[in-house]
Backbone:
């Protein structure tokens, strides 16, 4: 007798995030203009009612398939374990806080457009490196990940002067550290 293979929606936050991001990518590809309408943050007027949802929805938008794959692969890799450890609600809360803070930081201080989930990915990376933390100890892996990631961002950002990406990722990393250390 053969066992029937069943699928499990094992990581609701990660899978839903991936599906919503894919939908945003397809909307942009086939309709055009949806990234600037909903899935990116730029210095728009506060009288534009869509400015407010953009502060969060920008993490779902991606400029191209390569950027989408890069972010979503990391989310699908890291998020299931973190959802098991911290709970889906905490991960969703972390994503929302990261999106809001990075969106506001960008809107307040930078011209240009911000979209993509790299701040969320950095939040998850920091949380994963803190997952094994015991009371009174800071994992060396956490310090190494932090130093390597931020130094890599500084080195890659310096030639083009892109402090936006660095600050939004730092916002994500800070959210990840706060959530990771609370548990």
Residues:
């Amino acid at each position: 007798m053969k066992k029937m293979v069943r699928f499990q929606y094992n990581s609701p936050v990660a899978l839903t995030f991936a599906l919503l991001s894919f939908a945003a990518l397809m909307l942009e590809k086939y309709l055009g203009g949806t990234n600037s309408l909903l899935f990116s943050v730029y210095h728009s007027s506060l009288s534009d009612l869509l400015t407010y949802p953009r502060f969060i929805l920008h993490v779902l938008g991606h400029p191209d398939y390569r950027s989408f794959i890069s972010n979503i692969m990391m989310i699908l890799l890291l998020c299931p374990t973190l959802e098991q450890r911290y709970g889906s609600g905490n991960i969703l809360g972390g994503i929302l806080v990261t999106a809001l803070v990075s969106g506001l930081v960008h809107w307040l201080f930078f011209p240009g457009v911000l979209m993509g989930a790299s701040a969320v990915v950095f939040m998850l990376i920091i949380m994963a490196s803190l997952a094994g933390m015991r009371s009174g100890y800071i994992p060396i892996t956490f310090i190494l990940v932090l130093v390597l990631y931020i130094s890599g961002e500084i080195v890659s950002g310096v030639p083009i002067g892109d402090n936006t990406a660095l600050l939004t990722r730092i916002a994500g990393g800070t959210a990840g550290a706060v959530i990771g250390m609370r548990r």
